[in-house]
Write a structure and sequence with these properties.
mainly alpha; single chain; disordered N terminus; 167 residues
Length: 167
């Protein structure tokens, strides 16, 4: 019983919010940029998988599907982490705590994906439909950094609010 009371006083974990942010950030990228705007696919800047051919579209659709499975698994991991914390009796996050961590996770997704896929591997860019996509890639990285800073500030506000309520 004593351990359970100590867990109740424990703040909510950061992991679930960050995992939700990573997963939802990937979903936003995949749904908005890949499917709705059709600016790029996972390997659309690889010559052997050009989206100008049916075979290239098939490979890109398959790669996008694997990407969406990975983002879904991140959201699932965030859900498991949240339920596990609640079952341990840890405090539930307030909206600013959770939303701040989700925005931070989304920003981390953008920075990692932008640096690895756009710059290091060069498998696609934000706008593969343009002749010079570098400015869009840089904008994507800046947006990711802003999400991290803004999300972290929001998280810290939520954390202070939780601490004030706890006494």
């Amino acid at each position: 019983m004593h351990d359970r009371q100590n867990h109740r006083a424990a703040p909510p974990p950061k992991a679930s919010g960050l995992l939700f942010g990573l997963g939802f950030g990937g979903f936003i990228d995949g749904i908005a940029l890949h499917q709705i705007l059709q600016w790029h696919d996972m390997v659309s800047d690889v010559d052997a998988h050009s989206v100008a051919t049916v075979a290239g579209l098939e490979i890109n659709t398959l790669a996008d599907g694997f990407f969406h499975i990975a983002t879904w698994l991140l959201v699932l991991a965030g859900s498991v982490a949240a339920v596990r914390a609640w079952r341990q009796g840890r405090a539930a996050p307030n909206w600013s705590y959770q939303a701040g961590l989700m925005l931070t996770g989304w920003g981390i997704f953008n920075l990692v994906e932008g640096l690895i896929n756009h710059q290091l591997l060069g498998v696609h860019h934000v706008r593969d439909d343009l002749g010079s996509p570098l400015s869009w890639d840089i904008g994507f990285l800046i947006f990711g950094a802003l999400l991290i800073v803004g999300g972290w500030l929001l998280y810290r506000h939520g954390k202070r609010t939780l601490q004030a309520r706890a006494g």
